[in-house]
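Methods, example record. To illustrate the input and output format used throughout this study, we show the complete record for DNA repair protein RadA. The sequence lines were provided to the predictor; the line carrying structure tokens was produced by it.
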Amino acid sequence: MNPQAPTSHATGVAAAVCRTPAVLSAGVTKSVRAKRAGYRCAECGHEVAKWFGRCPECQAWGTLEEVGVPRAALARVAAGAPSAPARRIDEVDVESARARQTGVPELDRVLGGGLVPGAVVLLAGEPGVGKSTLLLEVAFRWAARDGESGPALYVTGEESAGQVRLRAERMGTVHEAVYLAAESDLSALLGHVDEVKPGLLVVDSVQTMSSGQIDGTPGGVTQVRAVTAALVALAKERGLPVVLVGHVTKDGSVAGPRVLEHLVDVVLHFEGDKHSTLRLVRGMKNRFGPTDEVGCFEMVEAGIVGVPDPSGLFLNQRDTGVPGTAITVTVEGKRPLLGEVQALVSPSPLGNPRRAVSGLDSARAAMVLAVLERRGGLKLHDADVFTATVGGMKIVEPAADLALALAVASAARDFALPPDLVVLGEVGLAGEVRRVAGVRSRLAEAARLGFKRALVPRDSGKIPDGMRVKEVPDLASALMIAANA
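The corresponding predicted structure is encoded as:
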């Protein structure tokens, strides 16, 4: 008889007994976790299984809220009756899906020709940028086309009908086929649609609308998602184009859950500086057209007007050159725009000289200044350098690097570039001037506006007729040519 056998048996039983509570505890814990409610971010709508102080998706603090237990996915779904029989693609009628012009050409450019029946457009922008003004103009233009497209219904949840009427009188957009309603309840909004039967619906804004059948506060994730889904269903069912006004967060993104941008067909951003009259409508998503188009508008006392040729807004009109200025051509979407880059260099009394940037990318401006000092021979370490654009234009593409470098060099050495000269090129850290896209279209726009000379990178392709072009391989060559021009 093995004297260790009982001992081994006892040890095994004891070990099994010791393991049993752990196994049971793990099973119970797993079962409890399976039934535990999840959490949803009130900022972006991201769902997680457990609570975090910071949302893993959008990095916002304190935005996770507890939600109900998610339903388990069905293993098998029974077939149902289709709402309409499937048809061959060549038999589908496309006339009902043709875009209809809004009457505002700059907006139609961004939309890809106009509003498609049943499309839902989300227009987002900062407070006071002019979203309501633009959409009131759109409603007036839509309704003023001899009634062929039906009336326009403008529903506002942020202002009273009287306030909207006063703005319409100031803009000259009062029309008998434009209907106003001050509502913040979704059911009341749908009632107005049934009564008016509009050809265009404008909701200002989606964050102010709510439904009593949905839990949550107005503007919350649940309410915004439910209201948007209901309006999308309304648009698709009736073939009604709907334009929604959306708020933006402090970082410039659309407020509300991320699913909001997925529900709608078109997402437009309305941009502009409050100190400038220029406004840009930029397409971020478009199921019916391009997403690289930009519409230009100008805010005036009477409202907002489209600017089909905005290059003149970004140039100072003068006949002689001024030290510290350079003209470049930037591309917004598919549209080339001429812009003026200005620079001022002055001796600094401070131990740490100032570097101020307005309308340009500050990181690229700092890089260009470093390349100028190291590769171009300019001494800027003891000078204040101020750089800016004209007319509130924002230039962030690398094609303006060479123009910025020549503007700073012109200001530092006190020489003026010729007033009929445009400058294109990206500046590398080694001082080389790199090629940029669309040189021909950029120079064609410059030639149309009267510019006759250009500095461009090497191998820039075919040059438009009437332009005297000099190709520069590096920054030192560009500085030499510019100083002797």
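Annotations derived from this record:
The chain has three domains: 36-66, 97-308, 312-483.
The longest strand covers residues 335-347.
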